[in-house]
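User: Sequence recovery, please. Input:
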């Protein structure tokens, strides 16, 4: 009986393309090195990986990766690959991956550089990183850009975001950003392309910067009632798709009292943006009644008293064998 011939070589080209589309990134790279025909098959399909992470931190003296503190993590489907590099080698590897193919895309790109401030290493790393991106003309095609790091130089954050390709960018997550950095980012094309934003900052923001965001999750230092009203008005007035939301939290309270906060917020809202608003006899909006109506929507469990305290004299506890609590319980049972 003759030995069966391999099936892969006899498959039509479009069948091979369908098979390659189900492979993870590591398998595609392995198949690409088998032959020139397989290389053409892999290159004919767009390469998309789920996660690309670049982590860099200062390592202790006795750490195994002291000289290679940069870690690059690739995750595609159920396969995860990670390798440690020196900072310069990590930049070279990053550029090589994104220059691998013009069709190369990443769903989530995470760049996390922290605790790397010794001898201005943080500034030097991003300076070399941005210079290599400009020299190699690398514009990463990513869908979700996560940047949970703070920048010592105010222009490096803006330069890094502007280097991203705007065709596929949809969401962005910024860990630490100043008002000056956000003001410059708001004028970029990448910022206007973003539909979902997660932001942490200690400064105040301008509502006009995030008026186009459909899914907004921010934590800021302070917000005035007028700013909150403007955010709500944009969400209610714009024709946003299903699933849009705004989540805002502050490091400091808006005002001292909650009732004043509700009144100030709703007084600045446009009446057309709020449905079924209570009005007075002259047709004006009754903001106090509206605030009371919102207060009535609180769950009933917040209205119940947590404890019911009864005052009793010592002569009411006749049996010293039991504790006072047991005496009260026995008295209730008799009733």
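Assistant: Recovered sequence (335 residues):
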């Amino acid at each position: 009986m003759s030995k069966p011939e391999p099936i892969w070589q006899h498959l039509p080209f479009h069948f091979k393309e369908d098979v390659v589309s189900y492979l993870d990134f590591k398998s595609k790279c392995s198949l690409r090195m088998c032959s020139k025909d397989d290389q053409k098959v892999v290159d004919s399909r767009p390469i998309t990986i789920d996660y690309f992470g670049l982590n860099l931190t200062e390592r202790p003296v006795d750490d195994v990766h002291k000289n290679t503190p940069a870690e690059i993590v690739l995750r595609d489907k159920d396969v995860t690959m990670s390798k440690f590099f020196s900072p310069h080698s990590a930049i070279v590897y990053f550029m090589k991956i994104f220059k691998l193919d013009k069709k190369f895309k990443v769903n989530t790109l995470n760049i996390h550089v922290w605790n790397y401030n010794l001898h201005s290493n943080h500034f030097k790393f991003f300076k070399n990183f941005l210079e290599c991106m400009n020299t190699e003309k690398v514009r990463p095609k990513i869908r979700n850009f996560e940047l949970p790091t703070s920048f010592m130089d105010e222009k490096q954050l803006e330069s890094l975001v502007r280097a991203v390709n705007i065709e596929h960018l949809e969401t962005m997550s910024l860990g630490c950003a100043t008002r000056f950095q956000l003001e410059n980012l708001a004028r970029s094309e990448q910022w206007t392309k973003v539909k979902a934003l997660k932001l942490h900052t200690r400064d105040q923001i301008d509502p006009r910067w995030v008026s186009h965001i459909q899914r907004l999750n921010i934590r800021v230092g302070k917000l005035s009632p007028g700013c909150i009203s403007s955010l709500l008005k944009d969400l209610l007035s714009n024709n946003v798709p299903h699933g849009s939301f705004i989540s805002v939290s502050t490091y400091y309270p808006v005002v001292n009292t909650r009732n004043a906060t509700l009144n100030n917020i709703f007084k600045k809202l446009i009446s057309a943006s709020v449905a079924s608003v209570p009005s007075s006899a002259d047709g004006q909006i009754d903001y106090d009644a509206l605030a009371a109506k919102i207060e009535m929507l609180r769950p009933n469990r917040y209205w119940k008293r947590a404890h019911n305290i009864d005052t009793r004299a010592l002569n009411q506890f006749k049996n010293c064998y039991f504790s006072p609590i047991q005496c009260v319980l026995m008295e209730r049972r008799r009733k």
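The chain has a mean pLDDT of 78.
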